[in-house]
Specification:
Elements: H1 11-89, H2 99-105, E1 116-118, E2 123-127, E3 141-144, E4 147-150, E5 153-158, E6 162-169, E7 177-184, E8 193-194, E9 199-206, E10 227-234, E11 238-241, E12 245-246, E13 252-259, E14 266-271, E15 277-283
Antiparallel strand pairs: 1-15, 2-6, 3-4, 5-14, 6-13, 7-11, 7-12, 7-15, 8-14, 9-10, 9-13
């Protein structure tokens, strides 16, 4: 019998085959191991791009929010200014509705009333040599639990360069005859100063129909359109009054007091609710 036998492999062939198989196995293992490594930069790039996009969105939203807050703040400030301006321009309605018609159409006899002493809520000095200077409307301040309140004093100061502006509001229906008045105590009982006694005040009237902002009043911002109203003497221990004029109840009466002579100086303080310093006397008209 004849058998075909393959020639026995040599030891070197066996070793080479095993080496080749090992190399093949190592190559496949290396490829399998390197496959995840090749995907890592892609993942990192995607994460980095995502972070950039998210950061850009956050920055954009922050900028938009800031712009909206700024816009809302500007709108609110503008609305508040317009509201304040509109409130100042509102008509002051009389609380004595139809009383004039009632008294004119009937034979009612009103009771008699004494004149009313009407004080200005504040006097403010202005200076022609310092047109933008704002003098404080209140001099002495008294401390209380919640802060400071002004003492009820009315400072009338007039020099060749300084004048005083005062604004009165007419009180009460049927007391509409007004007279500008000044009362100065005797020299020995006061700290007032009057140069070249008796001195004289020149008074100018302004067509102001609303309340002045005394905290912002200066020579440059004073009312315009003033007309000469009259002259008022000033002397120690005396009371002087100008002739009465019609003054509508609830209206504002605004005056500027100036020197009538180049060398005058009048420094008079009004105190309390009594007739002292500069004030308005209101007489009954019905």
């Amino acid at each position: 019998m004849i058998f075909n036998q393959s020639p026995p492999s040599s030891p070197s062939d066996s070793v080479d085959g095993e080496y080749a198989a090992l190399l093949q196995d190592e190559d496949s293992t290396t490829k399998e191991a390197s496959a995840p490594a090749s995907g890592t930069p892609r993942v990192a790039f995607k994460l980095e791009r995502l972070v950039r996009v998210a950061t850009s969105i956050i920055v954009l939203c922050t900028v938009i929010d800031c712009m909206l807050l700024l816009y809302l703040g500007v709108q609110q400030h503008s609305a508040q200014r317009n509201a304040a301006r509109d409130e100042e321009d509102l008509e002051i309605r009389s609380p004595y509705v139809n009383l004039a018609e009632l008294y004119s159409q009937t034979s009612l006899k009103s009771s008699k009333h004494d004149p009313i002493v009407n004080h200005a809520r504040a006097f403010v000095q202005i200076s022609s040599t310092e047109p933008h200077r704002i003098f404080p409307p209140y001099g002495l301040l008294r401390p209380i639990a919640d802060g400071m309140v002004p003492e009820y004093q009315r400072h009338l100061l007039v020099t060749p360069t300084i004048s005083t502006i005062a604004q009165f509001r007419v009180a009460d229906f049927g007391m509409e005859n007004c007279s500008l008045s000044i009362t100065v105590p005797p020299r020995a009982d006061s700290n007032d100063h009057i140069h070249d006694e008796p001195a004289t005040l020149d008074i100018w009237s302004y067509p102001v129909t609303k309340k002045l902002d005394m905290q912002k009043l200066s020579y440059a911002t004073r009312p315009t359109g003033g007309t000469f109203f009259g002259s008022l003497p000033v002397s120690f221990g005396e009371t002087y009054r100008l002739p009465g004029y019609h003054c509508l109840s609830g209206s504002y009466q605004t005056f500027e007091f100036k020197c009538s002579t180049p060398e005058c100086k009048i420094d008079v303080m009004g105190n309390g609710d009594e007739a002292s310093g500069l004030y308005v006397y209101q007489y009954q008209t019905i």
